């Protein structure tokens, strides 16, 4: 997200003071709209502890969103994510892949939904599928497509369409949550969808930091020295960085219970955004990441140009054209490694020689 994002309440952490906050409670709503909590699982004791994993037996009984979860696994879209970049190449041992990120989001969302007596199966399924349309290279794929085709490319919207193409049996709540999980999009139709938007942000901010530590780009001490970080969070960073996910999702549960809608305390939300800003400057902006993005940007642009100009039809680079769905369908068959192989096979001697 950049400073021009339109999700109004998130702008408060971008220098707009208390705009989007409830002054009486100090609570921040996502996207500026209050999604009321409708307690659908009143018989389940709420959990505030971070206990990811399989859902409880009672939660799985007669839950019609189990069909969506089954269809999602059948689609094959999740398996491909194991070889897709999150922020660093999944070929690097110990870093987060796009699949690992999706599982983290699903676990966090299910925990929060359970704690708020919402539908944990719905939240988990949206979380699992939210990034199913990410292409080779991770976010640089979307950035490159935006540069080529304009602002009509969005991986949430495309994920919605891909799943509908695979099966007409996906429920609208799941499709809507995947389509609108990004903080740049409209508010989802369910509180579970809004929970996933928060879980996504918590998951990637923490994993980006931990991956940076794994690669030696940053250390916990670097973040401790940043005075913009809340001291309670700084203490966790210094003693147990892995517990940060638990901390933020637990606060989301507590604050949403108090508010009656999906929300987070303003101070804690600002600290979360402070972590994100730190990652953007120190990790996303690192030479390792710049080299990775440059490689994929060039390769993706070359492949799209080759396909649209020679194999399918001449493109209009300012709007979606007839070849667009065919190009995307082809490219989304690949993970990072197979895409680079495809690029070399397609371009031959003209392909860029650099590899990860």
3D structure, described in words:
The chain is mainly alpha-helical and about 350 residues long. The chain has 16 helices and three strands. It has helices spanning about 55-60, 65-75, 75-80, 100-115, 120-130, 140-150, 155-165, 170-180, 190-215, 220-225, 230-240, 245-260, 265-285, 285-310, 325-330, 335-345; strands at about 20, 25-30, 265. Strands 1-2-3 form a three-stranded antiparallel β-sheet. Helix 4 packs parallel to helix 12 (about 245-260), helix 5 crosses helix 8 and helix 14 crosses helix 16. The protein is globular, with a radius of gyration of 20 Å. The model is unreliable at about 1-30, about 40-55 and about 315-325 (pLDDT under 50).
Helical/strand content category: mainly alpha
* Unreliable runs: 1-31, 41-53, 313-323
Kindly state the mean pLDDT as a whole number?
78
Helix content: 55-70%
- N-to-C SSE series? EEHHHHHHHHHHHHEHHHH
Distance between the termini: 26 Å
DSSP strand tally? 3
Shape: globular
Q: Gyration radius, to the nearest Å?
A: 20 Å
- Percent of residues in β-strands: under 5%
Number of helices: 16
Largest sheet composition = 3 strands, antiparallel
Strand order of the largest sheet: 1-2-3
């Amino acid at each position: 997200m950049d400073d021009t994002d339109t999700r109004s309440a998130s702008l408060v952490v971008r220098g707009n003071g208390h705009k989007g906050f409830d002054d009486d409670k100090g609570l921040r709503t996502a996207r500026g709209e209050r999604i009321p909590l409708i307690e659908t699982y009143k018989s389940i004791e709420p959990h505030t502890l971070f206990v990811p994993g399989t859902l409880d037996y009672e939660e799985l009984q007669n839950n019609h969103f189990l069909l969506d979860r089954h269809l999602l696994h059948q689609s094959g879209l999740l398996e491909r994510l194991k070889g897709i970049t999150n922020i660093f190449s999944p070929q690097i041992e110990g870093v987060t892949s796009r699949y690992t990120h999706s599982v983290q989001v699903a676990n966090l969302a299910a925990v929060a939904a359970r704690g708020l007596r919402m539908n944990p199966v719905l939240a988990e399924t949206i979380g699992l599928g939210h990034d199913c349309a990410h292409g080779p290279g991770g976010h640089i794929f979307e950035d490159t497509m935006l540069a080529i085709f304009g602002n009509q490319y969005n991986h949430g919207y495309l994920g919605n369409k891909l799943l509908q193409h695979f099966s007409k049996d996906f429920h609208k709540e799941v499709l809507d949550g995947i389509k609108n999980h990004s903080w740049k999009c409209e508010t989802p139709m369910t509180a579970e969808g809004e929970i996933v938007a928060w879980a996504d942000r918590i998951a990637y901010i923490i994993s980006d930091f931990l991956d940076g530590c794994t690669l030696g780009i940053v250390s916990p001490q670097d973040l401790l020295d940043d005075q913009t970080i809340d001291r309670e969070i700084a203490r966790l960073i210094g003693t147990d960085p892995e517990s940060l996910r638990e901390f933020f999702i637990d606060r989301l549960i507590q604050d949403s219970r108090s508010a009656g809608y999906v929300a987070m305390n303003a101070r804690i939300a600002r600290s979360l955004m402070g972590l994100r800003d730190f990652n953007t400057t120190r990790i996303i902006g690192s030479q390792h990441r710049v080299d990775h993005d440059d490689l994929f940007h060039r390769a993706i642009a070359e492949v799209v140009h080759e396909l649209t100009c020679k194999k399918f039809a001449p493109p209009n680079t300012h709007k979606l054209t007839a070849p667009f769905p065919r190009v995307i369908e082809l490219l989304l068959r690949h993970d990072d490694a197979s895409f680079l192989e495809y690029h070399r096979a397609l371009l031959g001697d003209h392909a860029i020689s650099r590899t990860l």
